[in-house]
Amino acid sequence: MPQSPFLREAQARGLIFQCTDLEALDAAMLAGPITAYAGFDPTADSLHVGNAVSIMILRLLQKHGHRPVALMGGGTARIGDPSFRDEARSLITAETIAHNIAGIEKSLRQFIDFSDGKALLTNNGDWLNKLSYLDLLQDVGVHFSISRMLSFESVKQRLDREQGLTFLEFNYSILQSYDFRELNRREGVTLQVGGSDQWGNIVSGIDLTRRTESKQVFGLTTPLVTTASGAKMGKSAGGATWVREEKLPIFEYWQFWRNTEDADVERFLKMFTDLPVEECERLGALEGAAINDAKKILATEATAICHGRSAAEEAAETARRVFEQGAATAALPEVNVAAATLDEGLPIFRLLQDAGLATSGGEARRLIRGGGARINDVVISDENLVVSSQDLQNGALKLSSGKKKHILVRPA
């Protein structure tokens, strides 16, 4: 059992999957604060719930007095991480990378305190973009074994499926290793944290730093988080669950956590909230209808970390009004439909599709036939119903799919 407060709590919360030398890392943390980093490749202009475990690890490091470093992959994004992917990522432009980095920095500031040097934001483009290829080969290439790189599980899986692995992608591990050494030189970073799919890359960085700097550094990975039903964390029918309000309304973020499966409640409370571990276990043990109260607490606490306590409580109150009172409220997500279109009238199945509650007209019709579609809290029985501006209530239509998905349609 680790003795350092960070490792004890991280282990109790289920945030640790592997560590290169847990005993030595524990001793280093007991000796004083360390600096640790996690990398974020800017493949989108916001982080999402799938990134939440890495973010929570950085938050926990900061809570226990260590200094977290968030590394933007401005350089490595020009290649794209091939780990456990079936095919190469599409290359993105420098302009897109810069735009995405700005959005990811905003995302991270929602979770981590970067004031007064308590945490650092860095960009590996600052050093990778300046590298001479020949200098890199001479300095770093000699320390990498091709046979060892081919033994990494992420590479083996790609090759076993007879999917091509380009020379461009093969360099990714070398550049990530270079990042670890560079951050050790610049900021004294001694720990890299990342998802379990990064194990091979992390170990390579540790080995490079040991060989060239004669220093011991560490790697720690977090588990791959899937739901009890096997779905990948953070994914839904509508796509990724983004952490920025510009990408996903706060109410929908709250609702994502509220829809957690019963079997995941305790685990997610431990991983994605700041509640004491004992309280997470108590809430997770609730049964029957009481587990829904635990889900509401999970939703509010997780949303408070991301968007602030006030916004989280407002989302919880919105949910209470919508689900318990059947009220339409301005806090619900909205879509606009041309006023002229509503004046003329349009079929309900098409409106459900336009509002994003169905991916096609056929799916909308099936939703109606199954009794799962409602307009202004009234079940829709006629799939050919024509909706017009005369159906507006307080200037909007409230559309519902099942009990948990609601949206307001307003004329534009």
UniProtKB/TrEMBL annotation:
Coiled coil start-end: none
Chief localisation class: cytoplasm
Residues given in the record as L-tyrosine binding sites: 37, 172, 176
Pfam families associated with the record: tRNA-synt_1b (PF00579)
Family: Belongs to the class-I aminoacyl-tRNA synthetase family. TyrS type 1 subfamily.
Matches recorded under CDD domains: S4, TyrRS_core
Organism (species): Neokomagataea tanensis
Alphabetical keyword list: Aminoacyl-tRNA synthetase, ATP-binding, Cytoplasm, Ligase, Nucleotide-binding, Protein biosynthesis, RNA-binding
Subcellular location: Cytoplasm
Highest taxon of source: Bacteria
EC number: 6.1.1.1
Official protein name in the record: Tyrosine--tRNA ligase
Function: Catalyzes the attachment of tyrosine to tRNA(Tyr) in a two-step reaction: tyrosine is first activated by ATP to form Tyr-AMP and then transferred to the acceptor end of tRNA(Tyr).
Gene Ontology cellular-component terms listed: cytosol
GO molecular function: ATP binding; protein homodimerization activity; RNA binding; tyrosine-tRNA ligase activity
